[in-house]
Design brief:
Length: 171
Amino acid sequence: MKNTGSFFLVGLPGAGKSTLGKAWARHLGYAFVDADQFLVDRTGVDIPTIFALEGEMGFRCRERAVIDELTQRQSVVLATGGGAVLNEQNRTALRERGRVVYLYATPDELYHRLRYDKGRPLLQVENPLAKLNDLYAQRDPLYREIADDIVDINGKTCMQAIDTLLKELKK
């Protein structure tokens, strides 16, 4: 396994960045940081509130500062927000400062996982599956652009996904 110092997980909402990231960090003996939770802790309000008060643009501005700060840490597993890759500065920071792992899942798989989750502001729409398809079309090329590794987590339990991740990262 190549030694990169830090691992940055990217992928659509519901791909398991936080869940797998925590387990992966424990396995490595690294710190785990969820960029969205870090932002919530820093601002004192949840993501839906930031979206309601500042809109997506305000949130993305705050997210950019958090990604810049967190990607400078060593020996960390960082779960990024699903849209962090929309910003070129974020993509550069992720690509240049650690090993980027894209947790790949289809929109159908993600819809199945998220259909009852009310904490995802971008999915609080009339047709969340259509929204996931739109997000996938927009973001999948960006995830692939910066990914050192692509791990297919479709249909896998958390433990199966971790096993897949371990095998991929040993290549």
